[in-house]
Amino acid sequence: MDKTRLNVPRRIVLAAALFAAALLAVPASADQAAEAFVASILDEANLVFQNPDKEARKESIEDLVDKYVDMRRVGLFALGQYARVITDEQKAAYLPLFRKYATTIYHDLLEDYSGQRLAVTGSIDRTARDIIVNSQAVDARPGDPLAGVVIHWRVYRDREGRQAIVDAGADGVWLAIEQQSQFKSVIANNGGGTTGIDALIAELRKQTGG
């Protein structure tokens, strides 16, 4: 079995040039509903970031992720083409493990925020139902890790108008895309198909203690 550790760096600093270029090619168009949705999440998150108790902050971040992130959609996206072959039994094992794994990743991404206030700075409509909302730490001091960093939130809107976060990233690099690359590698390196998915599930169990 491939022993490569599944990791997403705490500070996402690699350049996703092709993806960023695709975004820049889409005309900017403020989506007020998506911006208001993300702004309301950030209002809750800003209160969480002010809590000096790390354990309490972690629990609150988990609550925010459960409340606003469509983990099923993100989890299946992370499988890439293997989402078409995963069995119902494997889904029952994989999706809770993915939630636990991804929640830890979101916590690590947000751990740097210690009192800075995140605010929405604009949005880009990829489609009417797929919107990128940007935010920044508006009170970051020069030299702070977050100074000048653009935090992205990808919002998916279903046909009934319900909105959910389906990805997050910084400076053009996205968590779900990073996860998909690593997950597909583990699956492919362990025989592909359902056999490879079993190997991924085993790796997630090991990493999450599940």
UniProtKB/TrEMBL annotation:
UniProt cross-references to PROSITE patterns, sorted A to Z: TAT
Alphabetical list of Pfam families matching this protein: MlaC (PF05494)
Signal peptide: 1-30
Keywords: Signal
Gene3D superfamilies named among the record's database cross-references: Tgt2/MlaC
Protein name as annotated: ABC-type transporter Mla maintaining outer membrane lipid asymmetry, MlaC component
Originating organism: Amphiplicatus metriothermophilus
Lineage: Bacteria, Pseudomonadati, Pseudomonadota, Alphaproteobacteria, Parvularculales
